[in-house]
Sequence to fold (913 residues):
Amino acid sequence: MADLDSDSRQLLAPEADREVLPGPMNIQFESSDLRPNRPFHVEPTNIVSVSGVLQRVSDHASAMNKRIHYYSRLAAPADQALVAPDHVVPAPEERYVYSPLGSAYKLQSCPEGSGKNTSLVTIFMIWNTMMGTSILSIPWGIKQAGFTTGVCVILLMGLLTLYCCYRVLRSRATIPSVDTTAWEFPDVCRHYFGAFGQWSSLLFSLVSLVGAMIVYWVLMSNFLFNTGKFVFNFIHHINDTDAALSTNDSNPVTCPSAGSGHPDNGSAIFANATGLQQFERWWDKSRTVPFYLVGLLLPLLNFKSPSFFSKFNVLEMRARFPQLTGVLTLAFFIHNCVITLLKNNKNQENNVRDLAVAYLLVTLTYLYIGVLVFASFPSPPLPKDCIEQNFLDNFPSTDVLSFVARIFLLFQMVTVYPLLGYLARVQLLGHVFGDPYPSIFHVLVLNLIIVGAGVSMACLYPNIGGIIRYSGAACGLAFVFVYPSLTYILSLRQEDRLTWPSLLFHALLIVLGLANLVAQFFM
Amino acid sequence: MEESDSEKKMEKENLGLRPFSAVVLNMLFCISVLICISLIPISKAIGSWKFCLMVYICRWALPNTALKKKVLLMGKSGSGKTSMRSIIFANYIARDTRRLGATILDRLHSLQINSSLSTYSLVDSVGNTRTFDVEHSHVRFLGNLVLNLWDCGGQDTFMENYFTSQRDNIFRNVEVLIYVFDVESRELEKDMHYYQSCLEAILQNSPDAKIFCLVHKMDLVQEDQRDLIFKEREEDLRRLSRPLECSCFRTSIWDETLYKAWSSIVYQLIPNVQQLEMNLRNFAEIIEADEVLLFERATFLVISHYQCKEQRDAHRFEKISNIIKQFKLSCSKLAASFQSMEVRNSNFAAFIDIFTSNTYVMVVMSDPSIPSAATLINIRNARKHFEKLE
Fold:
C-alpha cells in the first residue's frame, strides 16, 4: 500500500495507456453521499484534467487524505469523534475523485438534487404518473362537452396546468433564506401561508388521495364484477348480451344504461335458471361485489410498510401522489410531486423542457384515446350518450379483449390501492398524531372509514366520472390554480417585482380554479 | 419502522411473562438497590473513602503497576487526550465512558472493567469520569513505558479528593508528563492552576520526569494567528513551570503537527539516540539504501532517519505511519499481527520489518536490481548489532 508519488511520471504513462482515457468528466454523486464519505477513499497518485496535462496531487492533500482515511478506522461509524470538520476538508471545488487505477477526476459541481435519470426516463416517469384512471373517463368527458369543445378544452387545460406546474417547479427558488433542497410543494405552501397553508394543503392532498381511493374501489368492484361474470358465463355458456341495447356485431358494443339493466330472471337463459339467479343474487355490481373486496383489501391496508406491494408495482412506487381523479384537472395533476420527480433528472437545466414534453405526450394520449373512442363509437345504432363514464363498461362482459384489460387493470389497482392507503395514512396520521403508525386501532379506524366511503360510493353512486370531477376540481383548486399563483404573487411582491399584468393574469387563474369547482356542482 | 415495531412487540411479550423466579430476582434487586442508595449519604460524609475503595478494587483487579515507568497524559476533560491517544497508538476510541445517569446501577456498571476496551472508567457520585488504561492493553511504549491517561482539572470536588488521596500513587515513577491544553479553553487561570498542582506533585514524586506541554486543537485558530498565540502560551508555560523545564508544542490532529510533536517527545526519550543515528547512517551507507527510517514499535513514530538524497515529500513519515497503523488495525480484525512488509516495483523496493524489541526499520532502495534477499540478510545482521546498543 505504499504511495506511488515518488518518481511516478514514468510509472504512470504506461498505466494511463491501459486505462481508457475518459471523455468529458461527468461524475455526479448524490449530495447525501458527500457527507459521510468525504473525502473519497481511493489512493491518489495524480490528477487527470480534461486537457490531459498531468498534474500532481499536492503532498499536503495526500497527507490529509491518508490521515482522514486512517482516522475513520479508529472510531465507530456512528461516532462523530474523528470526523473531519469543515474548516479542514478542502472546498468542494477542490475535491477530486480518485479511481482505483490511479487517475483522479475533478468533480463537476453538483447542484442540489442531481440524479441519475436521463431525460427520457424522467419524461416517461412523469407521463406514467400522470396517466391514471381518469383516462377511462375522457371519452365521456368529450361527450359531455361536445366534440370540438372537448378537444379544445383538453388542449387549453393541458397548457394551463403546464404553466402552473412550471410555477410549482420554480417556487422553491423564490425562497433564498432557507435550505429548500428537501422540500416538496406542500412545504413551500407552509412557508408562505403558515399553519393554515400546511393544514389546507394536507386537506386537499387527502381529498385527492381519498377521492382516488374511492374511484379505485368503484373501478375494482366493477372490474371484479365483470371478470366474475365473464368467467361464470364462459363456464356455463351463457350469452346474455341481448338483454342490453347493443350493436349487432361479432364484437358488440353495448349501451348498458339504456337497457333494462340486469333482470333478475334473465330473458335469454340457456342454462340452469336457478344457477344464474343464485349467481346474480350473490354477484351484483353494486350490491355485493364491493363488499367482497373489503375482505381482500382491508387487511392489506393495515400493513405498516408498503414495500411488499412495491414489488408488484415498481413503476407506481415512484409517485408520491398518484393522482387519478378529476377528469382533466386531475388528469393533468402532478403538482405536488413534480419537484420530487424532477429531482432525479440528470441534467437539471432541462427540467422545464422535459416537463413540457411530458405534458405534450399526456395531452396527445388523452386526445388519442378520447377522440378514438368517441369517433369510433358506433353512432347510428347507439346514441353517443351511451358512452359510459368508464368506457370499458361499453363492452359486454363477454368481450375477451375488455376482459383481459379489466383483469390487468384489476390486478394493478389491487396493488396500488394499499400504496394509496399508506400514503393517506402517513400524511394524515403523521400530521395529526406525529407518528405514522400510532397504534393498530387508529390505523384500523382510518382504513375502515376510507373503505366504508369506497363501499358506499360503489353501492350508491358508482359514477367514476362524477367522483373524479368533484375531487379533482376540489384539490385542483388548491394545488393547480390557487397555491402556485398565490406563492408566485407573494414572492414577486417580496422582491418588489409585481407588475399589474402578471397580477391580473394570476388572479384570473385563481378565479378560473374557483369557477371550475363551483361549476362541478351546477353543471 | 418495522424494526422498532418488532422490538416493541418483543418487549411487550417479555413483560407479559412473569414467572416466580423473575419476581424473586426483582425483589432482591430492589433490596440491594435500597441498601446501596442508603450508603450514599454515609459515603459522602466520609468523602474520598468511596473513591479509594473504587481505585483499590481496580488496582487489586489489575497487576501491580507501581514498578513500571509511566507516561502520564493529562489535561482537562475534553481537551483531546483520548483522541490523541487513539490516533497515536491506533486504539479504537472508547466512547462509552461518558457521564452516565445518576443511578447507583450506572455507577456499579461503570466499575466493571471492560476487557474489550482498552480502558475502564470510574464514575463517582457526582458524575465525574476517570478513564484508566487497562494494563494488558498492549500499550507498551518504548520498552517498558506504560501510558496512563488522566482527566484532571474539569471537576473541582473530585480534583481535591483525587490529588490529596491518590497523588503519590499517580505521580510516582513517572518518566514523562504530557500535559494537554485546549487552545480554545475559556478558563486559562484554572487550567494553569491545575497544571501547577500537577507540577508540584511531579516535583515531589518524580523530579526527573520530562515535561511536555501540548497546545492542542490549533486547527480551530486562524492560520495567521497561530504562531502568535502559541508563542504567548509557550512563554506563560515556561514561566509557570520553573524550576522544572518544559518543552512546548502546538498540535492538531488535522495537521502533521501532532505526529511531529509526539515524534519529538519519543526522540527525547530514547537514551542513546545520537549513537543510534550514527549507526543508522553507517548501515544505510553500507547497504546503499536511499533512506532508512527507524520507527517506534507501538506508534510508528519516527525515532530517527537517514536519507542520502533530498526527498520531496515532507509528510512522508506521517503518511507511512498512518498507512501502517491502518493496516495493523485491519490485521487485528483477523487476529493477526503485522510483522513485515515488502513493496517492490520497477523503480524502488521498500522493506518494513521488525528491528529491535522497540523498533521497526524501513529501508528504501532505489536500485531494484539488488535482490530482496540481500537486503533482508543485511537487515537481519544489522538487527543483532542494534540490539546490543539498546
Chain A touches chain B through 34 residues (CB under 8 Å). The two ends of chain A are 78 Å apart (CA to CA). The CA atoms of residues 261 and 484 of chain A lie 45 Å apart. Residues 1-55, 259-271, 308-326 of chain A have pLDDT under 50 and may be disordered.
